[in-house]
Amino acid sequence: MQISENGFIFSDKKELLQVAAIHRYLSEESYWAKNIPLDVVQRSIDNSLCFGIYKNQQQVGFARWITDEATFGWLCDVYIEKAFRGLGLSKKLMSFMIFHPALQGLRRYQLATLDAHALYEQFGFKPIEHPEQQLGIAIKNPYQTNNE
């Protein structure tokens, strides 16, 4: 799937992804994946439904869904490069993704965010009902080296 709008291309084609750019952003700028190794980023892309935003053949945004394409989807690694924020790209990306054929009819769509609640609430996300029923294992700073 691919659409163009205002000079931006939104696509689910993995062959367009610029893995080095995604790795740079996640490892250097994100709060959730600082220092993530390149091979981990590559494996995460290989095993996810991925979406990119491009302008003049430069990747300016990214998101991926961890999904079985039947019952569950976890949205993660969503970002827009700083120079392209404030243009409505996050909303357009969410609209593009939420109607993707592989994400239709799931029982649960989930994500975690520190600061983008208002964006995701526009697309139906809300605090989880009965969070006491959910469990997880969280490894804090898994990519940090001993020097950091």
Describe this protein's structure.
This protein has helices spanning 19-28, 38-46, 89-98, 117-121, and strands at residues 2-5, 8-11, 49-55, 58-67, 72-80, 108-111. The protein has 148 residues and is of the alpha+beta class. It has a 6-stranded mixed sheet with strand order 1-2-3-4-5-6, with helices on both faces. Residues 8-148 form the N-acetyltransferase domain. InterPro entries: Acetyltransferase_Butenolide, Acyl_CoA_acyltransferase, GNAT_dom.
CATH homologous superfamily grouping: Gcn5-related N-acetyltransferase (GNAT)
**What class, by secondary structure content?**
alpha+beta
CATH C-level name:
Alpha Beta
Helix content: 10-25%
Protein name: GNAT family N-acetyltransferase
Keywords: Transferase
Pfam family, one: Acetyltransf_7
Domain N-acetyltransferase: 8-148
Summarize the entry for a quick read:
One of its GO terms (molecular function) is acyltransferase activity, transferring groups other than amino-acyl groups. Helix content is 23%, strand content 26%.
Topology at a glance:
Layout: E1 2-5, E2 8-11, H1 19-28, H2 38-46, E3 49-55, E4 58-67, E5 72-80, H3 89-98, E6 108-111, H4 117-121
Parallel strand pairs: 5-6
Antiparallel strand pairs: 1-2, 2-3, 3-4, 4-5
Helix pairs in contact: 1-2
